[in-house]
Amino acid sequence: MKESLKAPSLIALRDCMAVKKGESVLIITDENKREIGYALWETAKELETEAMILEIIPTKSDGEEPPRSVAEIMKSVDVLLCPTTKSLSHTDARRNASKAGVRIATLPGITEDTLVRTLDADYNRIAELSIKLAKILTEAKIIRVTTEKGTDITMPVEGREGHEDTGLVHKPGDFANLPAGEAYIAPLEEKSNGVFVVDGAMAGLGVLKETFIKIKVVDGYATEISGGPEAEKLIETIEPFGKPGRNIAEFGIGTNYKAQITGSPLEDEKIIGTIHIALGDNVSMGGTVNVPSHLDGIIRKPTVEIDGKIIMKNGEFMI
Questions:
Q1: Cβ distance 200 to 268 under 8 Å?
Q2: Over 90: is that where the pLDDT of 156 sits?
Q3: CB–CB of 279/291 below 8 Å?
Q4: What's the CA gap between 252 and 249, in Å, rounded?
Q5: How far apart are CA 82 and CA 80, in angstroms?
Q6: Which residues of the chain form beta strands (DSSP E)?
Q7: Alpha-carbon torsion angle 292, 296, 297, 298, nearest 10
Q8: What pLDDT, on a 0 to 100 scale, did the predictor assign at position 17?
Q9: Per-domain residue ranges of the chain
Q10: In Å, what is the CA distance from 162 to each residue of 42, 136, 250?
Q11: CB within 8 A of 258, min separation 6: which ones?
């Protein structure tokens, strides 16, 4: 194990996952994230757990189901960490494992830099803000987001529950990303309307340095996507999933003060001063669209109104 990976691996398992001696801990990884996977596994062994590691073939897209046999194993352990190339977060396999009481953290697209730089954050501080924002989202009826670059979209959410991603996965069935740090909600299907301009990063495309992606939304679906080669690539990515792949799946607010734009949605969506809007699957967050694709678009310096009250102005919290 690389020396630099020891401390963050220990924080992940001991502090974030609260693993205890004798618990069964499974690490699911793939060839691209093998070094991080083995660092977590070795740390789990040092903590005297029943440590196991399973390497899968990288899935083709975020939200694609792992093999059925892997899904069965996922339900049979106490603690599960998934440092993988593509996300297992929005899969039935992960959801069923959570229902079975497994404590789970997914680390899709995790890099060594992200692991080292963000895992020593004060997760109690991050949790406090995330929980506060999740409560505000739960009580909300309509969210409006605007930016100077042209975003102006309304997303009705009445009746939906806001969720917090705190990084503190201590109780049976708890689930988080690592690094963590966001509050999020699934807008009501077929209700969102407007335009949003992705100017930070886009899942599958990385950092948007020179061009932005403009997405027109009509009755809950992305109907037009423009903005050069990146937009064309996004269209190509979601095309196989049909209309469900264009569903406005998520509105989220970043709360991790150590996160920065890297091109990895795992970290990008956690950045304070940004929000993200996702296309595709929203079953994991209380929605009704189940599709093997979930793509987050990061928006910098937004102004966020909830039921007419501004909670963030140009990326600065007003609460």
A1: yes
A2: yes
A3: no
A4: 10
A5: 7
A6: 24-29, 50-55, 79-82, 103-106, 142-146, 152-156, 163-165, 175-177, 182-185, 193-198, 201-202, 206-207, 213-218, 221-226, 248-254, 274-280, 294-300, 303-306, 309-313, 316-317
A7: -170
A8: 98
A9: 3-118, 123-317
A10: 35, 8, 10
A11: 117, 118, 120, 121, 179
So what CATH class is 3-118? alpha beta
* C-beta separation of 77 from 52 below 8 A: yes
Question: Do 109 and 266 meet the contact criterion of CB atoms below 8 Å apart?
Answer: yes
pLDDT at 38: 98
Alpha-helical segments (H) within 47-175: 68-74, 92-99, 112-118, 123-139
pTM value is 0.91
Q: Name the amino acid, one letter, at 212.
A: F
Handedness of CA 223, 162, 65, 84 (dihedral sign): positive
Tally of CB atoms within 10 A around 169: 27
Whether 27 contacts 1, CB under 8 Å: no
CA torsion, ordered 135, 138, 142, 147, to nearest 10 deg: 40
What single letter denotes the amino acid at residue 67?
P
Cα–Cα distance for residue pair 19/259, rounded to 1 Å: 25
Quick one: how far is CA 28 from the chain centroid? 17
Q: Give pLDDT, residue 135.
A: 98
pLDDT digit string, tens, across residues 113-147: 999 999 989 999 999 999 999 999 999 999 999 99
